[in-house]
Write a structure and sequence with these properties.
The chain is α+β, with helices and mostly antiparallel strands and 162 residues long. It has one domain. Helix content is 21%, strand content 36%. The chain contains four helices and nine strands, in the order E-E-E-H-E-E-E-E-H-E-H-E-H. Strands 1, 2, 3, 4, 5, 6, 7, 8 and 9 form a nine-stranded mixed sheet that branches. The longest helix is centred in the C-terminal third of the chain and has 10 residues. The protein starts with a strand and ends with a helix.
Amino acid sequence: MVSTELHLQAGFWTCRDGRFAALFLEGEAPDRRHGDVMMRDALFRVVLARGLKLTTDLRHFAAVPTPGWRALIDHTGAVTLDWPHHWPLLDHVPVDLPHDWIPEATQHGIVLLFVGCGIGLPESPDTGAPPLIERVTTVAESGALATGAALLRNTARARLAA
């Protein structure tokens, strides 16, 4: 049986509106209609159908909440990402959050989402791969990036402020 894989990395995105907490995701899944051949762009395709926007020029990215997308970070730093579906995309997933990530998310009330195909997650710094921001920009320019913003749920904000 072929398994589904989802790769996730937390980081920051700086744009004309400031510095934001961000989640970078990519995932693949078997195409059950075609003999379980792996679809490298499975997550990218699904999030486009669920409201994230195809983004080819990151200079014009709008940091506004995407309807139906909500994020919750619990007291341990685990992330739940709700989307327009019956089940969360991420459900209490432990994530290595950079220093100041939670305060940035709380300050803006949103978490930026970058979902693509070919980002290269997870990528170890010692592989000689280009920096994450450069890889995301390249993926966007190739037409394989969806972006949006998840509203930080009020329950998360209350917990994080405490």
